[in-house]
Amino acid sequence: MAAQAGNWAVSAERLIKRYPNGHLALEGVDLQIRRGEVFGLLGQNGAGKTTLLKILCGLLQPCRGRLRILDMEAKNGFHHIKRCLGVVSQDINLDQPLTVLGNLQRHCSYFSIPRRQASARIAEWLHILQLEHAAHQSIHQLSGGNKRKVMIARAFITEPQLLILDEPTNALDPSVRSVVWDRICAFADQGGTVLLSTHHFQEAEHLCGRVELIHQGRLQTLDSAESLESRFHALTANEAA
């Protein structure tokens, strides 16, 4: 933690989250993500990963701890922070009655992106993700993979400072997955920061400079250089034993 505060896109200290039913989801989580970094987060179901991501997106409040995102204190409200985020959640949270184009236009409008600029960005991402043919289809008409593509486009078109991606390439075919990987790398090369949650070890090894495991509400560092899968299973097995 010797780096200056301005070097961190995310700085969380001793985050604790206990739900009303008594379940302790996060047990004093410390997390620092540098600006321009692609940071990987692995975790089994029930490990606390979803809780942590929801806190970082402003959808949940921790019971204790301090959180700064992009040099802004989370406790002062997430309004300004959210305008700097691009989020792909695990759940599909698109406006079902609207078309693909309508969803992306509404999102750009919410972020006050000028109409001409929004149109150019939308057209670019429809092309990148091979969605041009589906632009005027309602969301409920789309396959799972195409819904995921719309969510990815929605996250990128606002040109955020921080991307929070929860299983972004689920249901994508390999060629589109490769395109998304390239775009994530390009985003980081241009100074953007990425928090990537994934179950695909190859994806984490390919994209992430650092990877941490969340298990039983705590974070542990994993070396990204060699066999994340074997280290992941060893640590989770050891702690479960």
From TrEMBL:
It comes from the Bacteria. Keywords: ATP-binding, Nodulation, Nucleotide-binding, Transport. It holds the Pfam family ABC_tran. Residues 10-241 form the ABC transporter domain. The keyword Transport applies. The keyword Transferase does not apply. One of its GO terms (molecular function) is ATP hydrolysis activity. Gene3D superfamilies: P-loop containing nucleotide triphosphate hydrolases. Transmembrane segments: none annotated. Belongs to the ABC transporter superfamily. This is ABC-type multidrug transport system, ATPase component. It comes from Methylomicrobium album BG8.
